[in-house]
Structures are given as structure tokens and as C-alpha cells.
Amino acid sequence: MKIRYLGHSCFYLISDSNIRLITDPYSPMGIKIPDNIEADIVISSHDHYDHNYFKGIKGHYEIIKDVKPIDIKGIKIRGLEVFHDNENGRKRGKNIIFIIDMDGIKICHMGDLGHKLGKSQLDYIGEIDVLLIPVGGFFTIGPEDAADIVREISPKIAIPMHFKPDLPSNANFPLPIVTADTFLTLLNGSKLEKDTLEITKETLPEPIKVIQLRSGAEWDEMSANMISRR
Questions:
Q1: Per-residue pLDDT tens over the stretch 96-144
Q2: pTM for the full model?
Q3: What digits encode the pLDDT tens for the residues 146-186?
Q4: How far apart are CA 102 and CA 105, in angstroms?
């Protein structure tokens, strides 16, 4: 399977049989999803503009935004309801962690997780091969809590998301979140100079490998200015 990072919390997962799944498509906000992305399945962890921009994705796709287990074209998806903050949802509401089984590889997308996880939640998530985890803070957990969760889940691969992207020096990114640098330092991670990772069950690393993918998003100054004026 292929995992392509499209910026923010948006990943493009493509199975060996060419089933295409998008996670948390976002509205243009300085960065934007490329125009040519088509999907068969789109999942959304919660209904905020930077996680539910379905019209930015092409194709005839099924939208998944609840926790009910489902099998679509051989892709198994189940969800776990958690919170977008550390006050039981009082500030930002609920969030869904999705566990996706594709090509025998278990991927966990944590959406905008805002708190540490309890034992029952960790048990439900179970063994994970690829963990997609927010690290930028402010709206989600920050790098320290994210690093702790990686250690608790112990995936084969951990990939940060929802962080301040690397941008031109004159670019104005409108969200008050940090880069993934501290997270990478805490777990001895590294940056890849590509936006796509190709993996199979047989090539998964041991022990944990922590990598930041280069974003495949496009920079869009006009949308950055619109978001910053909200």
C-alpha cells in the first residue's frame, strides 16, 4: 500500500487493489489539497472545516464519520469516540479515532485527539502498524503527549500530522500550532524528502520508526489571508 501525506491531518491511502481512502480533507487555509485527488472512501474525524472539506475531493466516494465498524471494498474501518480537548469535549467537542485495516496493515488515524488515552481506549485500538498522530498542540495534544502515546501503542511506524508545515519564509500560516521538530527529537525521528511511503506487511520495520513525510499540499496565500481574518 501507499501512504501519501497531503498536509494537516489529510492522508491518501491507496491499497494494492487501488482502493483509495482519504482522511480528514481540509478547506484551503494557506495550504490546500491538490486538485486531482480522487477517492473511493473519505473519513472525517469531526465536523470542523479543516477536517471535513468533502467537496475538495473528486470521485464517487463513501463518507465515513461515525464509529460503527464497516467493510467497504475489503477495507475494514472502525472508530473510537474520544474528545477534541482535555475537558471531556467541553471546549471543542468529540473526535473519532479511526482504525483502518488495508492490505493486512492496521493504520490508526487519531484525528484531533486532545488528551491522553486510558487503558480501555488503548485496548480497543489494539496492535497498530502505522500510527498517524497529531503533534502540533493548541487544538490537539502537543509533542510530549504525542510521544507518550506512541510509546504506549508501540506501532511499527509513527507519522506526525496536524503541525505547522515547512513554508516559505514570507508565508503566513494561520493556525497557532508548532512544527513536528520537538516530537521528532523526543523519539529520535527523521524527516523524509518525499510525501509518499510504500509499505507491505513484510517490510514493516522493527522497532518503532518515526518519520515526518514531506507535505504534498500546495501553498495558497489567498486562503491563508482569509482564515487569518476569521
A1: 999 999 999 999 999 999 999 999 999 999 999 999 999 999 999 999 9
A2: 0.95
A3: 999 999 999 999 999 999 998 776 677 888 999 999 999 99
A4: 5
Residue 32's CB: how many other CB atoms inside 10 A? 21
CA 158 to chain centre: 11
Mean pLDDT of 21-40: 94
Answer whether residue 8 shows pLDDT above 70: yes
Higher pLDDT, 29 or 148: 148
State how far the Cα of 45 lies from the Cα of 172, in Å rounded to an integer. Answer: 26
What is the set of domains in the chain, with CATH numbers? 2-228 (3.60.15.10)
- Residue pair 192/213 in contact by the 8 Å Cβ criterion: yes
Print the SS3 string covering the chain: CEEEECCCCCEEEECCCCCEEEECCCCCCCEECCCCCECCEEECCCCCCCCCCHHHCECCCEEECCCCCEEECCEEEEEEEEECCCCCCCCCCEEEEEEEEECCEEEEECCCCCCCCCHHHHHHHCCCCEEEEECCCCCCCCHHHHHHHHHHHCCCEEEEECCCCCCCCCCCCCCCCCCCHHHHHHCCCEECCCCEEECCHHHCCCCCEEEECCCCCEECHHHHHHHHCC
**Looking at this protein, which amino acid is placed at residue 161?**
M
* All three cell numbers of 50: 479543516
Measured in Å, how far apart are the chain's first and last C-alpha atoms? Answer: 38
